[in-house]
């Protein structure tokens, strides 16, 4: 079967043709770290193998699905054979976008293609991967996430299209060198992703104006965001970039749900006065997933000298979180089965899908959750 994925990247293209590259590498675009390329990648995969991974169970899990194995398989499929087509652009790099009336932006072309698909009853989820991920692994994880999210639907749930934002993570298992390099590149990539979100803000504003003037229908589907591991640090720096160019005192509301999984950021980052204090402004809901047995969080905590991580024990002071923010402890459920990429594992992935489909946090008929005795915004997956 043929699988298609939309992507945005600030990685340097590989091959002679930037509009039909062989892939993307481990350093920034030759046009600068904030330059974004938008495109589509397609690959062929065996539907029998895909179905096997979607139905696979680990331990006594109640909800089937092994997205980790599926991501590995799809990454191999992409490495063996894939087709990449970047949206062509015609712009002047030394002139601000707003002052180029005749420019052709790849972002606008991709947003328009996505809008057409969303009009056919599809939500869009933007996915930012974490540390130590190369191009093929990023594509595999994004496609696995898309397939996992679409294996169940509730309350007339819609199709979910995953859009990958991939930044130049090293993709090398060097515990100290690559982590330090990736963290620096994640910071710069946060500025690039922020630039992309500002483009999205402008596109949506223009679309609303055009629809009001012409009477054409405005897409009523929803946008979501999922950040994994160091991808949350990308998001942290995205907010800083957006503040620099915000219109007014508040950031624009772009997303319905933001999911922070195994977040490699400080455990107080969402509190007032901290780096992600205003995350709630760009979304209707924030869900933090964490796991006390996550070895990657131990690496970040102890070998890198970081404060406690949000993805390890959750928020330092849950009572100080904004009312839109909830946190979910996955430790008891994923222990010994999935340490770090549990957003791709059946039961946790289903919990994400419930939120997308509008299932309340306290719905006991579907969700495998138990509320903390002392906090209304703290949950445990059972």
Description of the structure:
- With 382 residues, the protein is α/β, with parallel strands linked by helices.
- It has one domain.
- 34% of the residues lie in helices and 21% in strands.
- The strands form two sheets. Strands 5-4-1-7-6-8-9-10-11-13-12 form an eleven-stranded mixed sheet, sandwiched between helices. Strands 2-3 form a two-stranded antiparallel ribbon.
- A hairpin with an 8-residue loop joins strand 2 (11-14) and strand 3 (23-28).
- Helix 1 (47-55) packs antiparallel against helix 2 (67-80), helix 2 (67-80) packs across helix 4 (135-149) and helix 5 packs across helix 6 (231-244).
- The longest helix has 38 residues, at 177-214.
- The protein is globular and about 55 Å long.
- The two termini are 35 Å apart.
Please count the beta strands (DSSP E, at least 2 residues each).
13
The radius of gyration computed from the alpha-carbon positions, rounded to a whole number of angstroms, is: 20 Å
% residues in beta strands? 15-25%
Shape: globular
Fraction in helix: 25-40%
Number of helices: 10
Order of helices and strands: EEEEHHEHEHEHEHEEHHEHHEE
Number of domains: 1
Largest sheet: 11 strands, mixed
Question: Biggest sheet: strands side by side, in what order?
Answer: 5-4-1-7-6-8-9-10-11-13-12
Average pLDDT, all residues: 88
Instruction: Report the end-to-end length measured between terminal Cα atoms.
Output: 35 Å
Low-confidence stretches: none
Which structural class best describes the helix and strand composition? alpha/beta
């Amino acid at each position: 079967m043929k699988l298609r994925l939309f992507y945005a990247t600030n990685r340097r293209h590989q091959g002679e043709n930037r509009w039909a590259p062989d892939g993307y590498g481990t350093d920034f675009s030759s046009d600068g770290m904030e330059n974004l390329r938008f495109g589509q990648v397609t690959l062929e995969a065996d539907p029998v193998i895909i179905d096997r991974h979607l139905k696979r169970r680990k331990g006594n899990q109640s909800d089937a699905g092994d997205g980790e194995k599926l991501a590995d398989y799809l990454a191999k499929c992409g490495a063996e054979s894939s087709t990449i087509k970047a949206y062509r652009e015609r712009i002047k790099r030394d002139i601000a976008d707003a002052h180029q009336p005749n420019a052709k932006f790849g972002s606008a072309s991709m947003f328009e293609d996505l809008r057409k698909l969303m009009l056919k009853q599809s939500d869009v989820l933007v996915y930012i991967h974490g540390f130590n991920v190369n191009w093929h692994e990023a594509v595999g994880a994004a496609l696995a996430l898309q397939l996992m999210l679409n294996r169940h639907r509730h309350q007339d749930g819609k199709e979910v299209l995953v859009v990958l934002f991939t930044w130049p993570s090293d993709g090398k298992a060097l515990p100290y060198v690559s982590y330090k390099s990736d963290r620096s590149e994640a910071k710069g990539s946060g500025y690039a992703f922020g630039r992309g979100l500002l483009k999205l803000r402008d596109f949506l504003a223009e679309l609303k104006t055009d629809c009001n003037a012409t009477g054409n229908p405005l897409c009523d589907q929803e946008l979501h965001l999922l950040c994994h591991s160091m991808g949350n640090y990308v998001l942290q720096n995205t907010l800083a970039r957006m503040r620099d160019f915000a219109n007014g005192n508040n950031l624009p509301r772009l997303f319905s749900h933001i999911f922070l999984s195994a977040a490699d950021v400080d455990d107080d980052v969402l509190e007032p006065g901290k780096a992600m204090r205003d995350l709630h402004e760009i979304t209707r809901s924030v869900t933090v997933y964490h796991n006390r047995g996550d070895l990657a969080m131990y690496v970040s905590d102890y070998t890198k000298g970081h404060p406690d991580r949000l993805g390890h024990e959750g928020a330092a002071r849950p009572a100080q979180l904004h009312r839109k923010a909830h946190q979910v402890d996955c430790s008891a459920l994923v222990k010994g089965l999935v340490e770090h990429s549990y957003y791709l594992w059946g039961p946790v992935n289903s919990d994400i899908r419930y939120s997308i489909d509008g299932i309340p946090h306290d719905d006991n008929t579907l969700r495998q959750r138990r509320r903390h005795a002392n906090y209304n915004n703290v949950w445990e997956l059972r």
